[in-house]
Amino acid sequence: MIKKYKTYKDSGVEWIGKIPIDWTLVKLKFLMEIKSGKSISTELLSDEYDIPVLGGNGILGKTNNYNSESKDIIIGRVGAHCGNIHLLNGKKWVTDNALLVKSKINEEFLTYWLKSLKLNRLANTNAQPLLTGSLIKNQFITIPTDSQVFTQIANYLDYKTNLIDSIIAQKEELIEKLKEQRQAIINEAVTKGLNPNVPLRAYGIEWLGDIPEHWKVVKFRYKFETSKGLTITKANLVDEGIPVVNYGEIHSKFGFEVNPEIHNLKCVIEDYIESNESSLLSKGDFVFADTSEDIEGSGNFTHLNSDIPTFAGYHTIIARLIDNSDYRYFAYFFDSTTYRTQIQNLVKGVKVYSITNKILKDTILFYPPVDEQKNISEYIDFKVNKIFSSIEKLEKSIKKLKEYRQSIISEAVTGKIDVRDWKPKTA
């Protein structure tokens, strides 16, 4: 059982609180050296090399050169990976998207302390978050006077966090399997229907395979009309007005469907209605992101599943059904591997992949009569809602485990618990 230290004193830092009587409050600049990594050209990267290249999100590739060969702490300094922390020993190249830390004390202990600080909160609030070495160096931490305690705390946290990480990994693996199950249900239903005994036939398209013989096959252009989203920037977004969904949110938050009744959307002022009516969505309208940073994101879309009028924002293509087909069926069809593979085979790009009106209009759709469309979409809704419920429970469990992990780290590195006599359990 983990105990507390016998005597504590006030650390002088409000969020740290009380610390063991023989611990010391010290600024990080006295415990480490910190500098920015260096950029590396793509010509110096190759899978044939052995030395890892690290940025803010871990290993980016391999090279045959290095700018450090000691045990170093690497901290992400730019963008979404701000505050990410990795500890790596041996030869490595650390890019300018990361900070390189050389510790003067036990590296594992300092790594855990840095994780407890949640360094991303120190980044500036510009469009591209940035973390600087000077901000980190001036943070206070507390350390024990006995250097052996550094190792004991690090060993304790290694053991505990590895156990927690193992459980998290198992739950994340289960989530991925559930997502694969969802995808399989969608793919089967929108390409074969619900009746396994229905006659099938080939439509002369190699990748299409056999589909029910009574289904129709048409190009996108004959089923949907298209228009563009608003020509705005982030500066035009406000907290109240007409909800608007932008391409970034399609990629990161509201893929597949969006509902302003439950989703937190930014808005534009009502004046946009008069001059931009074609960009205003009705229930069942689709919005495709017109650019993606990777090929896998090509074809990402959402559809409005609400009666609340909502604008499509910047970098989007709107698609509206021109008949009374079931929009929910086509939402699942667009989310199928069969359809997304079409998009991915048509887009071109290197760092940015663009989806054009022409690309969408040239894709091939296949579908049953309206009544059967509705039966298929209701069947998929029923199946995937059960899957989403399971995923939601797992995600909540993972969140709690991560919070528990963070609390254990914080308690150990601030001396709230005494692990000096702790030993791992043996089998």
Automatic annotation (TrEMBL):
Keyword entries, A-Z: DNA-binding, Endonuclease, Hydrolase, Nuclease, Restriction system
Q: Where is the Type I restriction modification DNA specificity domain?
A: 20-176, 212-396
Q: Does the keyword DNA-binding apply?
A: yes
Q: Name one Pfam family in it.
A: Methylase_S
Does the keyword Nuclease belong to this entry? yes
GO molecular function annotation: endonuclease activity
Similarity comment: Belongs to the type-I restriction system S methylase family.
Q: Which PANTHER family match?
A: TYPE I RESTRICTION ENZYME MJAVIII SPECIFICITY SUBUNIT, TYPE-1 RESTRICTION ENZYME ECOKI SPECIFICITY PROTEIN
This protein is called Restriction endonuclease subunit S
What species was this sequence derived from?
Flaviramulus aquimarinus
